[in-house]
Amino acid sequence: MTTRIDTRFAELKKQGRAAFVTYVMAGDPDPTTSLEIVKALPKAGSDVIELGIPFTDPMADGPSIQAAGLRALKVGMTLKKTLDLVRGFRKVDNVTPLVLMGYYNPIYIYGVDKFLADAKSSGVDGLIIVDLPPEEDDELCIPALKAGLNFIRLATPTTDDKRLPAVLTNTSGFVYYVSIAGITGAAAADANVVGQAVARIKRHTGLPICVGFGIRTPEAARAIAEKADGSVVGTALVDALKNSLDAEGRATAKTVNAVAELTAALAQGVKAAKQAAE
Amino acid sequence: MNIAKPNSYRSGPDERGHFGIFGGRFVAETLMPLILDLEKAYTAAKADPAFQAEMNGYLKNYVGRPSPLYFAERLTEHLGGAKIYLKREELNHTGSHKVNNVLGQIMLARRMGKKRIIAETGAGQHGVATATLCARFGLECVVYMGAVDVERQQPNVIRMEMLGAKVFPVQSGTRTLKDAMNEALRDWVTNVHNTFYCIGTVAGPHPYPTLVRDFQSIIGNETKTQMQEVEGRLPDSLVACIGGGSNAMGLFHPFLDDPSVEIFGVEAAGHGLTQLHAASIAGGRPGVLHGNRTYLLMDADGQIQDAHSISAGLDYPGIGPEHSWLHEVGRVNYLSATDDEALAAFQLLSKLEGIIPALEPAHAIAKVMELAPKRPKDHLMVVNLSGRGDKDVPQVGDILRGKSK
Ligand SMILES: Cc1ncc(COP(=O)(O)O)c(C=O)c1O
């Protein structure tokens, strides 16, 4: 089975360039603006969209993404409305891969089977669920693969060669390498160190490897894109969104553009990268 | 419920850390290798007599164990039913049962070569115990505490600082224990290479619920021996309060396979079960948070709800996974006590026995006040007095003075 994610990475490979992966929180700062932002991302140069599922207790995220989730929850965002948002996006874009990223509890409460059916039919391509390591694959990963969704696993600096095969076994779409041991929004990793880690993972898998955590600028996105198959940016976009809000935390006329402009600048950085020879 | 009764209630968890459907390891990949290392280190330590011998030395001479099993004669007379015994965990060094577990984990951290210890704390008792043992063994100590709890448990904040710990008031979320736990997990993810996370209750990813239970089981094991000495038989019932459930599990576990022993866990009902409370079993359902599946307070969308209790140590929207399982298999009865009931019990025990309890075990005493009068005079009831009330004196003093005005 070929998914939108597979197709997109095959195209990029043909073009000889890395992917630019963007993360935004569903429903931040409100569902309508959020849909406009998601629609604007591919036009501004995003190759793959990660859409955060809001959760009260995002243990692996820093203050920016936690605040984004709480803003969304405050205006009534739910998992169901997150899927509605994806459906809205699919009305205008049927090619850009979209991955939901979040924590397990909202999905568990929604019901795994119902969630997978609804996610698939709304146009979701893959899942990144931070608190489901391979040890808990029976919960969601294996049913998701059966339902035709990619399950994208995080590999981290603590994932050594002995553990990597376990992490990669049921991974599909791409591998998300977390460049630092830490939370989102933390300091950036050294691109050369990341390059070594990517090379190490490549010895275990043929899947594309995208790198995230700590990338904020076009220069950093470019440096990572020279070492990996994709650069992921989240916190910087969430911060740009937040800085465009009014004093009450509501969207302004600037909000959609603030995210789109930074996306365009970062995309330029990624496109300027010279891909490492494989 | 159609849940098969196990041959033993004491054999869990399975090798993947599950008690029935509860427990497990729901954490970010960064932490998994650490958690697997911890499990290995704990298995090795458990099998090493030198580890046990070293712990026993500190338990006796530093913590002050065994803690007495005290017959509360005046409380018994007042309630007019069961003979009530108090397991005096409040007499431990640092003032609560938390020190039993912290000693075990610090010994493990030392074996693993970790020099930096982090902990989360609600009432501050776990933080104080951790700060104390870090001082004793010369380890760096960082304690995360919700900003709300920093306010209401000032005496413990000052104690931790005197002991050399850094206390971080957590401003995110509801600014109580659950947020302190999130923040501790974030620190751990960031500093995995040199940091040991000392969890304060029987919750979190496997193997924490098991190792904390094992370290706390000394409470029940001593109770068994002591009751045999004074009464020549097993107790008829056990009562303990539940935040995450470590003092309760410590008392209960050695008795789970003794069918004659009735067991009661008491959750915090706050303003009442239909209002703000912290009773995860009475008012929650199974979900996944902080590394384990267990009963949680949450809304219809799986978002975690605010807990409320007058007692900072019980103010948590979850409960240890083994308790969730014991509830579903029906071995333990989970009850709840409101803020007001706990306050009344706090005053009753202080006045009748000259023992000022912490607000946490005051919840257990509140249910003893209901249960004991309905039991015959030869019924032996043990209540876990998990901590002393020094930390609560300013808070309760304000409430009582406010009421008398
Ligand atoms: C004295 C005392 N008892 C009980 C508790 C609740 O924790 P647990 O349920 O793990 O025993 C606390 C927690 O801070 C405490 O300080």
UniProtKB/TrEMBL annotation, chain A:
One function term, GO molecular function aspect: tryptophan synthase activity
Chemical reaction(s) catalysed: (1S,2R)-1-C-(indol-3-yl)glycerol 3-phosphate + L-serine = D-glyceraldehyde 3-phosphate + L-tryptophan + H2O
Highest taxon of the lineage: Bacteria
Record bears the keyword Transferase: no
Pathway: Amino-acid biosynthesis; L-tryptophan biosynthesis; L-tryptophan from chorismate: step 5/5
Active-site residues from the entry: E50, D61
A GO cellular component annotation in the UniProt record: cytosol
EC number: 4.2.1.20
Keywords: Amino-acid biosynthesis, Aromatic amino acid biosynthesis, Lyase, Tryptophan biosynthesis
Entry-linked CDD domains: Tryptophan_synthase_alpha
Subunit record text: Tetramer of two alpha and two beta chains.
Family membership noted in the UniProt record: Belongs to the TrpA family.
NCBIfam families found in the cross-reference section: trpA
Biological function: The alpha subunit is responsible for the aldol cleavage of indoleglycerol phosphate to indole and glyceraldehyde 3-phosphate.
Protein name per the record: Tryptophan synthase alpha chain
Organism annotation: Bradyrhizobium guangzhouense
Lineage, uppermost ranks: Bacteria, Pseudomonadati, Pseudomonadota, Alphaproteobacteria, Hyphomicrobiales
UniProtKB/TrEMBL annotation, chain B:
Keywords: Amino-acid biosynthesis, Aromatic amino acid biosynthesis, Lyase, Pyridoxal phosphate, Tryptophan biosynthesis
Gene3D superfamilies named among the record's database cross-references: 3.40.50.1100
Domain Tryptophan synthase beta chain-like PALP: 64-387
Cofactor (UniProt): pyridoxal 5'-phosphate
Pathway noted in the entry: Amino-acid biosynthesis; L-tryptophan biosynthesis; L-tryptophan from chorismate: step 5/5
EC nos: 4.2.1.20
N6-(pyridoxal phosphate)lysine, modified sites: K98
GO molecular function list: tryptophan synthase activity
Assembly behavior: Tetramer of two alpha and two beta chains.
Role, per record: The beta subunit is responsible for the synthesis of L-tryptophan from indole and L-serine.
Protein name per Swiss-Prot or TrEMBL: Tryptophan synthase beta chain
